[in-house]
Design brief:
Order of helices and strands: HHHEHEHEEEHEHEEE
Shape: globular
Radius of gyration: 17 Å
Number of helices: 7
Strand content: 15-25%
Structural class: alpha+beta
Distance between the termini: 18 Å
Number of strands: 9
């Protein structure tokens, strides 16, 4: 795990670089590598803990946080900001496990956790772009975005959660929900074209999502770490995945299927 001083050093350098480029920093930047603290303190709910054989929400959040830390360390090392002796979570040549697949039944908190991770990424990283996919509009709007609205209500967090479904802040800072069963053959075109410093992709009910979505995510994350598709799930399970990526970092989460970059 990165020491506190190393986290401060990396954040300070990243913020300095953003200022040089005329970019913005997030008032929630202190939570960038601490999604569990963000969920507890800002969203005000407590993820549940599992064990080695049966990971719970906390273990999934820890895997997501590790991928973020490793990508930032890699970026800082490649930019000459950290020496090899300074590295604590990643080593040169190490493959970052930026896809996290979660396969589970109903009522275990997958959607709740996915909503928390969406809010963490959106609030803590400047110019963050998040896409959430599911086979149908009801799955996106009435499940995932319903949970996002509930968790963010009355918290004074950035952006405005709409009924569209989306979170709107600025042209380069938003969350959009997309149903893949009504793409009309234009799915890839509708999804491609976003190449921002901080990108997150979440896919719910991944076994029912069209292949063009995964192709588009691969295209948009091609400048970062390798994005591998998750294996197909059985009909009795639910998959969620996350893939995150940016010039600096790339991480993922599944049982829904998603991908996030930083």
């Amino acid at each position: 795990m990165l020491s506190y001083s190393q986290q401060v050093q990396i954040r300070a350098k990243a913020e300095l670089e953003l200022r040089k480029r005329g970019g913005r920093t997030s008032p929630f930047a202190r939570y960038q590598f601490e999604p569990l603290a963000y969920i507890r303190e800002q969203l005000r709910w407590q993820p549940w803990q599992g064990d080695r054989a049966h990971p719970g929400q906390i273990e999934i959040v820890d895997a997501y946080a590790l991928a973020l830390k490793q990508q930032h360390e890699r970026r800082a090392f490649e930019a000459g900001e950290l020496s090899e002796g300074d590295l604590t979570t990643w080593q040169p040549g190490q493959i970052i496990k930026n896809i996290i697949r979660v396969e589970a039944g109903h009522t275990v908190g997958k959607t709740t956790l996915a909503a928390g991770i969406v809010s963490h990424f959106f609030d803590c990283f400047p110019t963050a772009i998040v896409y959430c996919f599911a086979p149908g509009h009801d799955q996106i709007n009435d499940l995932l975005f319903k949970e996002i609205r509930k968790q963010r209500f009355g918290k004074g967090l950035p952006g405005k959660v709409l009924e569209t479904p989306e979170i709107k802040d600025r042209g380069d800072h938003f969350v959009k929900g997309r149903a893949t069963n009504n793409a009309g053959g234009q799915g890839t075109e509708r999804t491609q074209g976003q190449h921002a410093p901080y990108q997150l992709f979440i896919i719910d009910e991944a076994e029912g999502v069209a292949e063009y979505v995964f192709d588009a995510i691969r295209s948009m994350t091609s400048a970062s770490s390798t994005l591998e598709p998750t294996a197909s799930a059985s009909s009795s399970s639910r998959r969620f995945a996350i893939t995150s990526a940016s010039a600096a970092l790339h991480s993922s989460f599944c049982s829904m299927r998603a991908s996030c970059w930083m």
